[in-house]
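Box 4.2: Ligand-aware structure prediction
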Amino acid sequence: MKFYKDHYDVIIIGGALAGLSSALMLADKGKSVLVLERHNLPGGIATSFVRGGIEIEAALHEMMSIGEKNNRLKVGKFLDDMGVDIEWLKVPEAYHASFPGVEVTLHPGFETFAKEIDAVVPGTYDKVLAVLSLCHTVFDSVNELSIHPMSKPMMLLKHEAFVKTAGYSTKEVLDTFHLPKEALDLLAPYWIYVGTGFSELPFTIFSVLMADYIGYGSYIPKKLSHEMSLKMAERAEAMGVQIEYRQHVEKILVKDGRVYGVRTARGDEIYADYVISAAYPNKVYTSMIEPLSEVPEKAIKMVNGRRLSLSAFSVIMILDKPAEELGIKDYSIFRGDSADTDKHYDDLKTLGPYKYITCICHNLGNPSVTPEGTCSFSITTLPRVDGWKTVRAEDYDRVKHEVAKQLIDDMSDYFGVNLLDHVLEIVIETPMTIAHYTGMWNGCIYGYAHTMSDHIVARLQTAEEEHFIDGLEFAGAHQISGDGMGPAVTNGRKAAKNVLDAMARKEAAK
Ligand SMILES: Cc1cc2nc3c(=O)[nH]c(=O)nc-3n(C[C@H](O)[C@H](O)[C@H](O)COP(=O)(O)OP(=O)(O)OC[C@H]3O[C@@H](n4cnc5c(N)ncnc54)[C@H](O)[C@@H]3O)c2cc1C
């Protein structure tokens, strides 16, 4: 029996959340699908590892777009509809914000959130609620327009707030509310999840972020993000998808402007009408298309014209005491020496010291995640790839340990406990770890930066023009919905939808 079929409808490069979402959707429509994953496990960054007999989450802090069981948002609903049965836990708070002079824990739910800010900065309830309500209106428009594109005049009529704010940055729109600085600071923490300072961050992106996380809360899978990856892979296989691990795709085969297959590092040539790639367009257009003469100049201009977004630096520790004994009270802490997002975004270009961090104590959202008497605590910052690209191999170990020490010292001061005295296990993830593990271009986990000159709305308008090779689609943080595990699912679905639409057009033209 041959290992591969003679031909597939679709080959998917990468068996992580985006690729598996494409696979599920295509298999659901009866297409023959092959997923080629270079690792021996599905999930990419949505994975875990074991140290000292303890399974440790590699990345996930919290996921957006899941929603309650009886009121799912788009990602939760898709997974339910596909029969991917995940035990979700709701994260108990939005976040604890820690800035000089401010220590406050805020909870999801628009009114609750506004009330809690009002308790710290009196007199701001109505304005904060108005900001959140505007975010919610824009969020609803984005959701509707991404499914039902409509003419510009109709958009103006039905989605006025979306249209009116689309051309403005988060800072510009927030300034119109004339909120005191202390209240604005408390609306800032999630900026790091989309990785652009407020002067450059399109308000559309901020709206989606705030409406989803604050309006509906965030979720984690009880058995870590790897539960999601494994269950998606298992379900895809049950639906007929062929998944092959340890198969690194080196080349995407193209003739006369159209894909016809791939070649793996093992030398297998496998044929298909469509290819969906998790590998970044930068990598695909500069080294994976065979022959490279099939890459149009415009594709190179497109990848060179976009700015890569953030990577991650994370210190993940298993500590020898329960959270409460170490003074850790919150699942999620965002901490900075200020809430100045533009300044922090600039600092992220460097190798530290990093003055804006996000911490998770997993046990406070998932009590049994580590053995009794211990807890899992991670400190993460999201540096831009520029700085880390300058680190020489001989300096890597030293730089990595210096940065980790700075972050641990900062949180030790904060809790008044030397966390290093309590470490049972410790793992340090750097942009290099991520680049090495997932093949992500420069270790960039966030795709291309959202900016006012490369705006999501413009990207939606030009998506069709960015199809440089027939039959080739992309699925990953580098696509329209951007970074994160929820958006990875949405990006995977969008790539599958593009393939299904193209197949339907081809069928109709026969
Ligand atoms: C420390 C950290 C914390 C994070 N926290 C959160 C969070 O709290 N919430 C959130 O939503 N997101 C978070 N993220 C981001 C999130 O993990 C990613 O955005 C998401 O998992 C990306 O999924 P993906 O499917 O697009 O890509 P990836 O997970 O990068 O997967 C790409 C896959 O393709 C495979 N591949 C690549 N090239 C090839 C090839 N040539 N041949 C075969 N296989 C190939 C790789 O092996 C990999 O499996 C975090 C990330 C990190 C690093």
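In the box above, the bound molecule is flavin-adenine dinucleotide. The mean pLDDT is 95.
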